[in-house]
Amino acid sequence: MSAGFDGFPVEGLDFYDDLEVDNTRTFWTANKQVYLDAVRTPMLALLDRLEPEFGPGKVFRPYRDLRYSHDPTPYKTHQGGYVAIGPATGWYVQVDAGGVRVSAGCFHSERESLARFRAAVDDDDSGTALERLVRRLARKGLEIGGDRLKTRPRGYPADHPRIDLLRHRSLHAGRSYGSPAWVHTGELADRVCADWRTLAPLVEWAREHIGGPTADDE
Description:
Blueprint: H1 10-21, H2 25-54, E1 58-59, E2 78-86, E3 89-96, E4 99-106, H3 111-122, H4 124-139, E5 143-145, H5 163-166, E6 171-178, H6 187-209
Antiparallel strand pairs: 1-2, 2-3, 3-4, 4-6, 5-6
Helix pairs in contact: 1-2, 3-4, 4-6
């Protein structure tokens, strides 16, 4: 499974550790080759190894979108890789100074897709199925995440049996690996593959019930 992928070098994590301190064009220009060799190239190799089972992936751009941000730093302090299997739905892997993280599910919440999500959660059959699925993933040690409203969404009673799920504007699950020694070896590909397989039922539920735009190449 891990042939052709040898993990993320220590230099890749160190690159982001330094970038968090000096997020400037000067630093980036001086260390761009480190990014290419120790971050981008391994991420492409990892996605290539996972492609036969999960489909083709893409590596997100390293530049931040500053148009609507008060933060002027130009570069992301992480590198994400994404495999889309449906609108706004798919698998994700990320490397940063702290190590590697994997997740999967629905990552965006445009108006129409959010309405479909809430309708599916409200439905007794699909909503109960999602509730059981989320509980099962949590029991396996996966963290349930996503943007959430602080209060109930309009049009739904506060005592709805799945009110916690209805508050979600996006829904995904995953886990952080940190930076154990195997993150720097080909074993990482096998770990990511195993967790993505575990997360597949959530991805399938999201693909069936949620629509909307595909994730932007941010």
